[in-house]
Amino acid sequence: MSQTATISPSLAIIQDNLDYTLFSWCKQKGIAPIAVKYAEGVYLYDYDGKRYIDFSSGLMNVNIGHGDQRITAAVVKQMQQVSYVTPGCVTQVRGELGKKLASICSGDLNKAFFTLCGASSIENAIKLARLHTGRHKILSRYQSYHGASIGAMTVSGDPRRLPVDAQQAPNFVHFDIPVLYRWPYGEENLLKESVAQLERIIAFEGPGNIAAILLEGESGSSGCLKYPVGYLRAVRELCDKHGILFIADEVMSGFGRTGKWFGFENHGIVPDMIAMAKGLTCGYLPFGCLMVSDRIAANFDDNILPLGLTYSAHPVSCAAALETLSIYEEDNLVEHAAEMGQYMDTQVALLQQKHPSVGDWRNTGLLGCLEIVKNRTTKEPMAPFNAKPDEMAVMNKVAAKIKELGMYTFVRWNYIFIAPPLCITKEQINEGLAIISEALTIADAHVD
Known about the structure:
Aspartate Aminotransferase, domain 2; 2 domains; 5-stranded antiparallel sheet
């Protein structure tokens, strides 16, 4: 029998991918991806029949769950009519989607510019902010991620920008927001210091030079880092005071993920623009959108809007998005996410009691993250910020165990992300946390 005949279907498929394709954000040798044959609900299935519970909704985007054939039907129907028109033409579904998004967005956020993904939504938000204000600087948080294109990567504070640091775009300024878990000076001083720091940076950079402040509605892949209570309201007030636009990045935290349509709704504010993608089509097709206030849009009633993409308002992606929004409402997924988030909090609290390696749990709705530490008193992380490969030994073992036990989720540095599809049940939450609990025994063995 030949050697090829003894290789499992999954391994053969993985080998073709390793030989002929490149993988994001990792070295290309020594990786072992899951070969997904099909997916349904909160589960992935490989070609050998093994089932994995998806506890991070892919990349926090498959909010409605996998394999929903309502999306398939909507996409097929649209493709039977027309698959592509230039952005200068219109389709029925484009107008219906824009109208629907306006109905769920706050305030006067009524105009949709359709993009291809989260990064292209951010890029166009940056352009539009500069065009509208005539200013050039964009302020954003250090511990944040907004996309991998050059502008989006530069405005991110995430260390993934550092390998291309010399090629960053100009006129982006970062600021820090301390996190309560590691803030030693008392919660009552956290908001005061955070706002004072931002006020100083605005003064140093010149408020008349600042086009926009860009913040995630809720923190995502940086570790679900909580804003000090009242912080986004204070930022909104500073923006209004100085004529600065507020851009909310809802690519990850939007569309029910935090138990609200958008993360910023948890903070009682309304931004001037919303960048969105991921949960807009839940990954069934690539798509994004920049929602813009009527005030900003009116600036281009008689002036050319110098933004454009070949696939803007792609009718098939519009159809997928419109059906996705219907599913959120039909299945009450936004409300369900809030309910399941509360249940998740109660169950993770039990997990914290059992495992001394769990230092902190930060969660909003179903956008959560466990922070794994060597010592709860000193809060020394199990892997440091921007950990090098040799500093990831323990967490790599934890991640490998999670996969071995039948779970796919996002593990980064000393973080284990818990952000399952919004359709998850209590029983499935218990199933997933049981896997994480078993894997955490590895980390527990390295606690001081």
